[in-house]
Amino acid sequence: MMRGRFTRRGALLGLTAAVIGLGAGLRAEAAAEAASDSERIVTLGGTATEIVYALGAGARLVARDTTSNYPPEALSLPDVGYVRALSAEGVLSMAPDLILAEEGAGPPEVVALLRAADVDYIELPEGFSRDMTVKRIEMVGAVLGREAEAEALAGEVLATLDAAAEAAKAQAGDAPKRVLFVLSAQGGRIMAGGDETAAKAVIELAGGVNAVSGFSGYKPLTDEAVSLARPDVILMMDRGGDHDMAAKELLALPAFQPTPAAESGAVIRMDGLRLLGFGPRVGAAVRDLNHALYGG
Amino acid sequence: MVAATENGMILNGLRQSRARRAHLWLGLLLLGSCLASLAIGASGTSLWQGVWRALSGAEISQMERVILWDIRAPRTGLGLLVGAGLAVSGTVMQGLFRNPLADPGIVGVSSGAAFGAVSAIVLGGLLPVGIATVFGQYLVPVAACLGSWAAVSLLYVVATRGGQTSVATMLLAGIALGALAAAGMGLLIYMADDQQLRDITFWQLGSLGGASWAKLGAVAPLLILSVAAALGLGRALNALSLGEATALHLGIPVQRIKRLAVLTVAVATGAAVAMTGVIGFIGIVVPHLLRLATGPDHGPLLINAALLGAALLLWADVIARVVIGPAELPIGIVTALIGAPVFLWILLRSRGVMGL
Amino acid sequence: MSVEAREIDVEIGGRGLLRAVGLTARAGEVTAIVGPNGSGKTTLMRVLTGELRPDAGQVHLGGEPVGPEHAARMAQRRGVLPQASHLAFPFTVDEVVRIGLMSGLSAGDPALGARALAAVGLSGFGARRYQALSGGEQQRVQLARVLCQVWQPVRAGAANWLFLDEPVASLDIGHQLSIMQVARDYADGGGGVITVMHDLNLTAMFADRVLLLARGEVRAEGTPGEVLCDEVLSAAYGCRLRLNTPPVGAVPYLLPQAAGAGG
Asked: Which keywords has UniProt assigned to this entry (chain B) (predicted)?
């Protein structure tokens, strides 16, 4: 019983962490060395996959990991498993000549084996900021020999993002809304995003403030802490399943009873990868979130 | 009368020689399993071609070398040792508790090891640098061994009175231990940072996937030593199955043997859990099957358990890595899917004989 | 060659189970320990076999001290038959007997198992599953196991010993007699036998020496003729007993002493 619970929670956290990432390690300078003519690419991480497609190189992909669910074409590729529990031989069995991995791919032993094999292994640094988003796109562009496309894409993403952020700032004014990112509410226990999370970053870009602080990463909150956070809006990932409680059910939890969010019934759901991936769609995600928060 | 006696001895001799012949068959099975584990994988890289080319001096590609030598070989070694360790742990525990239901996974010993390992992952950073350096890569396995040792010892103290183990007390104590370990782990998980949480998550799923020569090197001494020590316990465990007092009268240094058995189980389970996560059912299914086939004599049983346990885990791993390739199933799922029904079937078949 | 116990005190949970108990048993004799329920017979047996360390007093077997730390040495000198045995795994009869064989000094003789089983009347039972046997049969298998451990009554000039705790308690009268005869033969062969007995008739028939315990103390010691008398027994067992007196009325009674007589 305890294992089940633990594993589920761990996997949940990991899944999100895979999309989000923590801490920015800028050490993937090897990008330039990689062959730009690679024809068999495996991507490990949803954002990496998304960038490859956005640069028009989707046809060169031969496999992807479980978190790569966008664009829909990606789903027809072979799945080498969950990005944090990869199998070395599974990945190598796709006979890749390039592995494009996000920083959190693992386990470390498997990554070490992949690096040892006769394959270019490029690691995209984590980090959820405007600059890191651009950096990742540029890195992928350089590796694929599509610098021009990458520059265009980066420019486009930046333009959307900056415009959205600008508009958001103006709309928020002096009274930004307090947003609580709820990673999961399984069994009525609220797991929320704190400091140093992609959730906090995207909330702030969209003109809100993270309703909770003082802890980093995603942690379960006591009911009282949820009440004290007084969120105006609840933000959740849209997993489209029966796993999630309906908005009504969520707001009916005692923890939410005294919050403004419950009063106004404000629950926003957005696709996890789009919202937290800091990939090509981050500008659009910020714009949409901003509209959802303040009305567009 | 005389003829009947001889008949009896012959029948019994058959069972004995069957147990010994099983060494040979299981040895061959294990050899085959090792070859299968080296030859079968998602990539379809051929072992034979690789070996042939290496022997004939022809060039072997870096990819082939990595897959055969750096991926499949240490993984096979780890599966072999962990499988043998788990099966022997189960056999020794059942002998020690005089109870065919005792198994590291069922009575909370694996949970204890898991708790130890998680403690090392989360709290290892708090250790003074000197200590951490001394233990190095052994820190997690050693912590896991300490956890399982504490669990077995506690279990023995609680569940054994006057040399007899109560099945109900043992199982209930095991549940309590499991709960305690779970609570401890819960606490540690709250304290863990994101990177540690990823380590824990991977490790909890139970997999041989992270096998490497370094990992193998870290646990091989522990597993080889504990399995070797356990193989010497055969006569003592036979005597113990008549009760502690009788074992003493048969010349067994009971207290010392008990401590040795507890240590063996703790080290083998701890090392196995630390490297591959919690893999269930090997420790209970393997000795059961062997007792049905070749009798409960612990001498040959322990050897056969080591051989069959290793072979079974290797096959479970082969299944785990090809069935949903290129992705991989956690091996604990495979062993549970194979093991749980077999275990239930054994229970049904032998309820009367086992005295359950 | 003897087993000597001197001034044995055993106290468990504040209750004195044995007080200043002494015993001398000689090789070549059957020494019986008798007494009412709870008199300390089994406790004394546990002290004599080295399983239980007494709070005071010493036990020597053949001049050497007895105790749990000497298990290996003692296993070659004496076998112990407990009152009841639980077996954890589905061993066959032969496998149980072999456990005894492997623990003694006669391990090299593979035919011994069959001879020991024949001695307890279980020829042909070797391949049977121990747990499928009746209680009496199980008890006899255990005796065969003990016999295998110290098969020769005398080895290299030193006597071996059998310690039996109620060896015939769950047996029918025929097997009671044959098992007691096994013990008798062992003593006649030069070995020593110490046995806790419930049945006073069998004690009278087979024992050379009798130790009578009551409430943890020795009430009498001597030959059966000396110990088994009306006053001593009546006092020890707490009821009026009379020896060699046929019952009043037409109630049938049966004595093992009469078995085989005239048959």
From this structure: Cell membrane, Membrane, Transmembrane, Transmembrane helix, Transport
- CB of A17 less than 8 A from some CB of B: yes
CATH classification number, C2-77+150-258, choose in 3.40.50.720, 3.40.309.10, 3.30.559.10, 3.40.50.300: 3.40.50.300
Contact B8 C129 (CB under 8 A): no
Chains B and A touch (3+ CB pairs under 8 A): yes
Cβ of B100 within 8 Å of Cβ of C89? The answer is yes
- pLDDT tens-digit readout, B201-256: 656 667 888 788 988 998 999 999 999 999 999 999 999 999 889 999 999 999 89
- Topology (CATH) of A2-165: Rossmann fold (3.40.50)
| Neighbour count for residue A284 (Cβ, 10 Å) | 14
Optimal mutation site among B166, B250, B254, B301, interface C, most CBs of chain C within 10 A? B250
Q: Tell which residue, C37, C33, C36, C29, has the closest CA to residue C49.
A: C33
Question: Residue B94: what pLDDT?
Answer: 92
Residues 6 or more apart in contact with residue B95 via CB below 8 angstroms: B233, B237, B240, B241, B261, B298, C88
pLDDT in tens, C17-45: 999 999 999 999 999 999 999 999 999 99
DSSP assignment of A195-247:
BTSHHHHHHHHTTEEES--SSBSEEEE-HHHHHHH--SEEEEE---STTSPPH
Which site among A16, A77, A87, A114 would you substitute to test the B interface, given the most B Cβ atoms closer than 10 Å to its Cβ? A87
Q: CB contact, 8 Å: B327 with chain A?
A: yes
* C137 near B CB under 8 A: no
- Provide the shortest C-alpha distance from residue A129 to chain B (in Å): 19
* Mean of pLDDT values over C36-56: 94
What is the CATH T-level fold of the domain A173-294, as seen in this structure?
A: Rossmann fold (3.40.50)
Contact C116, C148 (CB under 8 A): yes
> Which chain C residue lies closest to B351 (C-alpha atoms)?
C90
Overall average pLDDT of the C73-94 stretch:
91
pTM above 0.90, yes or no: no
The reply to whether residue A106 touches residue B72, judged by beta carbons under 8 angstroms, is no
Residues of chain A with CATH 3.40.50.1980: 2-165, 173-294
| % of chain B residues with pLDDT over 70 | 89
Residue B129 forms part of a structural domain: yes
Residue A25 is predicted with a pLDDT of 32
8 A C-beta contact, residue C5 and residue C56: no
Query: Which B residues 17-76 touch A at CB under 8 Å?
Result: 41-44, 61-63, 66-67, 70-72
Kindly provide the residue ranges of all beta strands, DSSP E only, lying in B129-215, ordered along the sequence: 160-161, 164-165
Neighbours of chain B (3+ CB pairs under 8 A): A, C
